[in-house]
């Protein structure tokens, strides 16, 4: 393992944040203006609150993944994305798109989804 870099990725929104944000935005918008202006502000509040709520939910569910740079014996470099951080300098064996410890005892990361990218 030649290099490891942590990358923060947004989570997935379930819709709860958008609905909650839309309701709160609609309530706030309904308190602004009179007549048709109040209706327009309510609609604007619902849309804006929904967008903001969705983004907040994704950020709250964010997680860190690790981009792992592996130097192969032939000098090539391959990149993998993993859920856990491997030790820098550790020896690994690449089997397809999976890594395992060079000692052969166990996979380096059982729960990761590997994304192999040639550098």
How do the SSEs run, as a string of H and E?
EHHEEEEE
Number of continuous helical runs: 2
Largest sheet data: 4 strands, antiparallel
Helix content: 25-40%
Backbone structural class: alpha+beta
- How many strand elements? 6
Mean residue pLDDT: 81
β-sheet strand percentage? 25-35%
Terminal CA distance reads: 14 Å
> Major sheet: order of its strands?
1-2-3-6
- Cα gyration radius (Å): 23 Å
What ranges have pLDDT less than 50 throughout 5 or more consecutive residues?
A: 110-114
- Globally, the shape reads rod-shaped
What features would you describe in this structure?
- This protein has 119 residues and is of the alpha+beta class.
- The chain is built from 2 helices and 6 strands; from the N terminus they run βααβββββ.
- The chain has a 4-stranded antiparallel beta sheet with strand order 1-2-3-6, with no helix packed on it. It has a two-stranded antiparallel sheet with strand order 4-5.
- Strand 2 (63-71) and strand 3 (77-82) form a beta hairpin.
- Helix 1 (16-30) runs antiparallel to helix 2 (36-60).
- The longest helix has 25 residues, at 36-60.
- The model is unreliable at 110-114 (pLDDT under 50).
């Amino acid at each position: 393992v030649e290099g490891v870099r942590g990358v923060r990725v947004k989570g997935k929104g379930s819709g709860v944040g958008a609905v909650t944000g839309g309701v709160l935005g609609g309530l706030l918008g309904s308190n602004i203006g009179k007549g048709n202006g109040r209706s327009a502000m309510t609609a604007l509040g619902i849309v804006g609150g929904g967008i903001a709520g969705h983004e907040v939910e994704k950020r709250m569910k964010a997680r860190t993944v690790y981009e792992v740079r592996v130097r192969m014996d032939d000098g090539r470099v391959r990149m993998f994305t993993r859920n856990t951080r491997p030790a820098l300098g550790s020896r690994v064996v690449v089997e397809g798109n999976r890594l395992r410890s060079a000692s052969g005892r166990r996979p380096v990361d059982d729960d990761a989804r590997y994304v192999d990218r040639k550098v």
